[in-house]
Amino acid sequence: MRIFLPLLLALWAPVLPAHEGHDHGDAAPALPTAPLAPRFEAHGSGLELLGRLHDGALTLWLDAWDSNAPVSGATLVLESGAWSVEATETGPGSYRAEAGPLAQAGTHNLMIFVHVGDVDEVLIATLEVAQAAETGTAAPTWLWPGVTALLLLATLALLAGRRHLNRAAAPAVLLLLLPLADGHAHEGHTHAAAEPLNIVAADALPARLPDGGLFLPKPSQRLLDIRTLPVQPAALARSVELMGHVIPDPNASGTVQAPRAGRLLAGPDGLPHLGQGVRQGQMLARLVPLAAAIDHGEKEAQLAEIKGELEVAERQLIRLQQLRDSVTEKELDAAAVAVSSLQRRRDAVAAGLYREEALTAPIAGVVSHTTARVGGVVAAGDTLFEIVQPQRLWVDALAYEPALATRILDASVRLASGAVLPARLLGAGTRLRQQAVPLQFELQPPLPPLAVDEKVTVFARLSDTLQGVALPREAVTRGPGGEWRVWLKQSAEHFTPQRVSIEALDGARIAITSGLGGGERVVVRGASLLEQIR
Question: Which one of 30, 55, 136, 225 is most buried, by most CB atoms within 10 A?
Fold first, then answer.
């Protein structure tokens, strides 16, 4: 097997110098700094144009300069000297044109005529196309397949013959040598000539730059739906953030309680379920009164006594009526009144023992809470049903500044889902609760489905002002160190992070109080996705 090692070295020696004309000791450039395909940028009249040259064609992306939104339906005509071509739209805001003489090495001055809607704009740009490197000294292309095959066979034979090497290592070495063989099967030229392969990779993938910024190709921006907003500092109303929870409007809600101890029975339509709408006065359940055993016995005895007295009084009335000619009208009237009084007493005592009582809805609305069960025994004062009107809800919040209510102009409420609802301050309490002043706000309809006692955040706008930039909350992200920051668009495909200080404005916006001087294009949609690019 010793003959294979010299043979392997002999075959390897001419390969190394011929491998694309440079030493493998030089590390390949990192992806963020890899050379890009020739490209140009131009902007004007609220438009931003990016062009890229690849495979003899120009790919063009036309966006709104301020929002980064794709601009569709435009007519693009490119001119360079006597050469002219009109681009064809291939997708929303994406266009393609044959490069023609622009594919040749050199500096090309371009005029791009843009027509979209009522806008006619002439954009000026320069396209730099570098000279491709000369072909390096290499073996003829027809020689490489044979040399590669012989090299691989010799290596496998060497590994198979070495006792101290595992035969299973041969496939691993083969995998390591395949890229080399593939690289020498490409026409025997240098890396400069094969550069388009690296360019395509660099153009297609987002990358973190050494300065912490991002290279974000246009296709990736479209995929992530990146949107920007030019900003300018202005005087903003200061806001305060309060924690609160949803409560029912007491004028549009009610409870059904047991007036006395008893056993529950279903109403004519059965017991209502959660979420069921009810009418004012609708019977929800029936209550059969219950009493303690001793009280029940006393009432039974009292009823029996009244019934006995009533029987005697009725007989006495009958006798007097038979002796009408010998008795006075006064005696007859007294006997009749006695019978009527005993009858009412009997009915009243019997009602306390056996009569059912109807439990009705005090207000129209929706059943939000129920504890009623058929046959269940309840005590006097137990809450059986709670009824609310879903479009009439309030928010109860706590403020730790007693005079805060006098400075509140308006308010908004942010739900756990992120939705923001307008609210109106109703008033503030004069008694502390948990060492804070209770505030009540009325939610303005229409309202989404809300639950009573749901936790919410109240943003109260005050009469005080501050200087800053108002941005959507999603524009602000957390950096690696936990700091607040926003992303700025520096050019068509270049984004950089910027540390900022923030204050709350309302449920949907925040105020940038430092870090922005004005005129920057801030990413207001997709900023959290930019943070995830590594």
Answer: 136
